[in-house]
Amino acid sequence: MAYEPSDEVIANPQRGFYHHTETHYRDDGSGYVPLDGTALAGFRSEGITQILRVFYLEKFAANPILDDEFLSLVQADFDTARAAGVSVITRFAYLQGGAWPYEPPYGDAPVDVVLAHVKQLGPVLRENADVIPVVQNGLIGLWGEGYYTDHFVTDPANPGVVTPQDWAKRSAVTQALLEELPADRGVQVRTMASKQQMLGVPAAASSAVTGAEAFTDTALARVGHHNDCLLAAPDDWGTFLSDPITLDQEYLEADSLYVPIGGETCNVNPPRSEWDSASAELARYHYSYLNSDYNRDVLNSWGEAGLAETAKRLGYRFVMESSSVAPADESVTVSVDVRNDGWAAPYVPREAMLKLTGSDGATLSVPFTSNADVRRWLPGTTTTLSTTLNLSDPALASLTEGSYELSVALPSSDAGTASDTRFSVRTANAGTWNESEGTNSLEQTVMIGARDVSPGEVEPVPSVSPTPSAAPTPRDPEPSVSPTPSAAPTTVPTEPSASPTHTGALAATGGDLTPATAIGLGSVALLSVLLGSAILMYRRRLMQHN
């Protein structure tokens, strides 16, 4: 079965354009503007499924204790986002910049205060990880971007010089965030040097995380990147710090294949900020998300076609190419080929499931046993998913016999959003999406036959001889006797048993099975047993007559 691709912009979770939001908590407790559910619903109607939320902690820059009111407000924001079906890229910072030029003191917090705040934020971050795809490092300097800082450089008047001691303090903040987050969530840093210094590795592609190291509970696997001056200058205004900058660029190209990267544009810089160059860099560095609000001059220069292409290809874009359903004696193997036309793979855990749906509404979801982790579906590649449905599986045997539609389900792996189809992934195919179920139809069915055979019930079997036989008599237990070839009766009684046994069938078909024919593919071994019993009984009667 082949599938038709769709050219539609698809509002899938944890990818695409985002809207910027921010709020403040000033010395007098003023400035906090909660998220608005109606506004978030409007974002979703635009096809936007995530926001950046910057929480400014002005009141706490010199106070290590976050008050309960502030923490309650943060929790309420995450609740609002969850109810709206929106994810929250999260950043904490202490203050914004004022008018240029920026001069010290800037007003951010010292490292001990920062670490105390991270510890207090941990429970909120863990509680809401289902709507937090990634946390930006933040907390250091103006806007939380790590440059204009009073406490994480030796000389605030010369913030471009960062000593080993300064890097150690910065790394301590990143490590603290990693420790407070669930192991499957990451932290994004503002420059490649931040991760390299934390890990003690050089600026080189060989220092990047590999496929074998990816998705483990290590800083190497969990620290990603955000570039908030994408395309602004040759070095993106201090983003690429290596000499030559190509070392950082090659490092980011390799690292971003397995860790998240996103950001925003900030300066018109033709021709580099124009569409041809921009699209090449978004693809090279595997961007998952981008600010739709800033810089509009840069974004508008891409034209409607460029913006539409960006909306389609930021992050992942899965296209089902084909599927096959192969029945065997006691099983059916289902395979699906899925291509990733996006610029990145997903960076949040998600398991691909095969879902069976019966005409009576009964459902069963089973994981694909090969390539189920969508984070491994790399951009520009086709992945084959497969799983085998076995009659011996109790869950399968318990299904009512009949036809079951097959679909691919890509639900959220987080308990808080697993049943919310707004957090399920839709493939870029025409006519396959079931919005109410959050599934992608394979447009194929399997027939599942299963019924109980109670003790003493007669099971119909095909006749092997046209010759009629006498009605069967109750069968007494007796020693096994090697049977000789003989005509078999058309029906035989079953051996009494303590509990019902099951017969069943799995088949890929577009028709229906009646109860009389429900034995199907799974009955070969059963027929052999029944025929053997019939022959044995017939021989017993012959011996009695003699």
Automatic annotation (TrEMBL):
Residues 472-501 have a biased composition (Low complexity). Residues 222-429 form the DUF4832 domain. It comes from the Bacteria. Keywords: Membrane, Transmembrane, Transmembrane helix. The chain crosses the membrane at residues 518-538. Residues 12-193 form the DUF4874 domain. Residues 454-509 are annotated as: Disordered. This is DUF4832 domain-containing protein. It comes from Arthrobacter gengyunqii. The lineage of its organism: Bacteria, Bacillati, Actinomycetota, Actinomycetes, Micrococcales.
